[in-house]
């Protein structure tokens, strides 16, 4: 491998580890520091941390790969996500920041739900902790799959070595520095990702005698199975809704909404929202460009790529000098590591705060919980690495399953717990369980691939609807049980 690539990658690794050690000295003295960074994140850090931990390797591998394979029609996923993220910042972010602090300074989502519905506190903490750990093991595995693909495709190395190497680097700065390290590295990683997604589409569009948009369109118009239109003849309304429904997942992603809890003040949320949405728009447009223009470049030059999800890697090593290629690889690693670290931290904090403290040692000190959290980070990471063992795994497929699981289980629950004062603890449990079970059954029955003889329905749609309905029905039936603490007046 060219020395320039190693220089870029080593500089990136050194920066991530340096941030981890800085955070260790700055903010790991107690559980609130380790889990939420002392609730003192600046708006820009919270914004890019939420965005970077959200997008993962999906942004540079999964989405460009889907667009590369099928065409612009897959961009509906990005549009749905953008709309969902915007509503999430407007509806959930300010309320969650205020209410988690008012409800006994809850440090995790399960703790907030338990404090909000004290009659069902133990059940909510236990069930939500199980859901978080199970689905995050799968979600984290998707990031490790991306790391394995990078290592095997770009470096001609072993896929499994890539998986474990990615995990090792992430574990180092996450275990050492906790939430502050994860958030600061997310900020840097978010900047790197955005720059890469600005540079690559612009270069690819005119590379190899490319004639810009016009020639790319002409080239792609002759590719079988590929469309530049927003709608295809075989696309149904259900298919379109399944793509747009990705946006529903935002309301229930613990690793994203926990950033709302850590912003330094409710007033700072609006600034963070504006920064986050600009970053997201630029990054999504860039990812679309990588997939579309990358396919035009490949077709124009008669090249064949075995795995469409490696188009970013192929373009990085084919079109750029070694130093820039190393930077682009670092961007991909940034996308992967930012999400993996966030997911591991949320899983570990849930195990420490919502399992260990609840069932094992109720009087655990802050330093003891930090230690337990660090052990849990390693344990969840190792499980995820084993799940990621199959080199044929698809990043987008693993992400879609975990995204749906969280979105259906927690999405309606979070929205209604923040906005509906008549919601009860029994309704909360019903929504949490019914959403998760519906998603698991839908996937198990294959209805996300084919439903009633037609196209599949993305599992988040039935899961979200059933969860919402369960909360309304059960809460209405149990209104007289005095099962809830009213929402604090703003």
TrEMBL record:
The keyword Transit peptide does not apply. The keyword Transport applies. The chain crosses the membrane at residues 6-24, 75-93, 126-147, 159-180, 187-208, 228-251, 272-298, 318-346, 367-389, 395-418, 425-445, 457-477. It catalyses: L-proline(in) + Na(+)(in) = L-proline(out) + Na(+)(out). Keywords: Amino-acid transport, Cell inner membrane, Cell membrane, Ion transport, Membrane, Sodium, Sodium transport, Symport, Transmembrane, Transmembrane helix, Transport. Pfam families: SSF (PF00474). It is a multi-pass membrane protein. It is found in: Cell inner membrane; Cell membrane. Catalyzes the sodium-dependent uptake of extracellular L-proline. Belongs to the sodium:solute symporter (SSF) (TC 2.A.21) family. This is Sodium/proline symporter. It comes from Litorisediminicola beolgyonensis.
